[in-house]
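Sequence only, no structure available. Ideas?
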Amino acid sequence: MEFIVHRTTFVILILIYQRRVSAPKPPVLSAKEQTLVNELKALVTNRLTVEYMKSDAYLIKWLKAKKFDVNEAKEALDKTLVWRKETGADNLPYEDFSKLDKGYPIDFTVRDTSGRPVILIPFNDWNVRRKALEGKVVSELGRWLDFMEENAAQLAYNLTGDSTSMLLADLNGFSLTKHGCVGCIPLYLNFVRHHELHYPYSLYKFYGVNAPAIFQPIVRLMKSLMTQSTRDAFHVFGHDREEFRNSVLETIAPENIPYRYGGTKNAKLGKDK
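Reply:
I predicted one. Tokens follow.
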């Protein structure tokens, strides 16, 4: 099975065999849901340019986001199609992000126990303030996070038939200077806005672990822009390792993730210990 993974200057397609993984099936739709999906598909299918977007599993997300109103779902999806064309979102997984790959690492190689992608972010390694001072916090880091969303969606669809993934971030070392400066805030708000506008219902779970108390105001700001479904999937834990391990390891085998995220794996990403 082929999927997309970003590496320094390359995007590679590889074959993977995952031990002890049984891939989740795409959602089973009721007869009424299938009828609505078919209606929406007839209105937009000739403009959907990426394979995962043509699937019933993708289109039902837009209907859920708009309370199964086909016209409103079409209008929202139309706006996203315009955004995708203007920003070149279809090709984000193939864009050269080598200048960001090392300083702002993201790992796409982990799977949960059902085969769903788990995206790892060692956030302490990210110097958001540096990009803020350069005036590039949204233009570069924001696009880097758009890449993460798009790559995760395409990867998840190739693995499971559904463009839903999981995000696991280590927030240890989060500081007001490096991550929470005034110029840093637009990154977090832009990420939430783009997620809600362009990737509805694509987040299975978000777990932020090792978060200091000073991260909570950022959480409140982000949640103020989230839909209820995203808020329900969004979980932030402090430094109580046992507490966050109980949640994280419900769906991820401990040997598949490094210690900093609650696992037992020795592999390093960023400055993992």
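The CA atoms of residues 92 and 189 lie 20 Å apart.
Hope that gets you unstuck.
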